[in-house]
Amino acid sequence: MYLTTERLRLGRFGPDDGALLLELESDPEVMRFLTGRATPRDEVESVVLPEILAVYAGHPRLGTFKAEDADGFVGWFGIQPTADPRTVDVGYRLKRSAWGKGYATEGTRALIAHAFTVLGMERVEADTMAVNHRSRAVMRRSGLRFEKVYHEHFDDPLPGTEFGEVLYAVDRATWEAGSHE
Ligand SMILES: CC(C)(COP(=O)(O)OP(=O)(O)OC[C@H]1O[C@@H](n2cnc3c(N)ncnc32)[C@H](O)[C@@H]1OP(=O)(O)O)[C@@H](O)C(=O)NCCC(=O)NCCS
């Protein structure tokens, strides 16, 4: 087990978990601000799952973690390396049936606490499309603060790309000062 919260258990994905990822990524509404389309089964098996497993190998204390509540799989939380070894990037992707329960905020707050208290990180970041208001609300509720809007080039941009991407972050001092209360 990677970590537990009041209602969630987070643990590593295994090589047989393609079906769970497909269950998540085959919903175009879940993928709306990521790729804008359902991920096909072969891509889950040949790209999505292997990439998740590869991060565990390269970064044993980081990665994308399967989240379960009392009834089973609800989605995942990610805590990923960045170019700066003392900064991690957090993210989340939940099945639609798990939205509206506070799970994303609960898991993200736990990952931020884990980053500072267990992993010794100095900064936690999160990013999303500016138009992904549900995700931005999770960032705000988790104690991350808005830093900037930035623009990236995409060959096949999603609707809303023109409004850019947003970066939220919190540093250790700010978090310790109580933003996590
Ligand atoms: C982004 C995403 C995780 C947000 O999920 P969410 O359910 O809106 O966020 P939370 O888990 O924090 O839940 C908050 C909601 O639960 C409600 N809630 C119900 N019970 C609650 C409880 N016990 N505690 C806290 N909130 C609770 C809140 O009132 C809030 O409702 P609202 O959206 O009507 O204001 C989800 O929309 C998702 O997976 N999207 C697809 C993937 C994605 O876009 N990821 C981000 C890309 S970077």
Automatic annotation (TrEMBL):
Protein's UniProt keywords contain Transferase: yes
Entries under Gene3D superfamilies matching the protein: 3.40.630.30
The protein's name in its UniProt record: N-acetyltransferase
Protein species of origin: Kribbella sindirgiensis
Keywords carried by this UniProt record: Transferase
A GO term, aspect molecular function: acyltransferase activity, transferring groups other than amino-acyl groups
The organism's place on the tree of life at top rank: Bacteria
Residue span(s) of domain N-acetyltransferase: 8-173
SUPFAM superfamilies: Acyl-CoA N-acyltransferases (Nat)
InterPro entries in the record: Acyl_CoA_acyltransferase, GNAT_dom, N-acetyltransferase
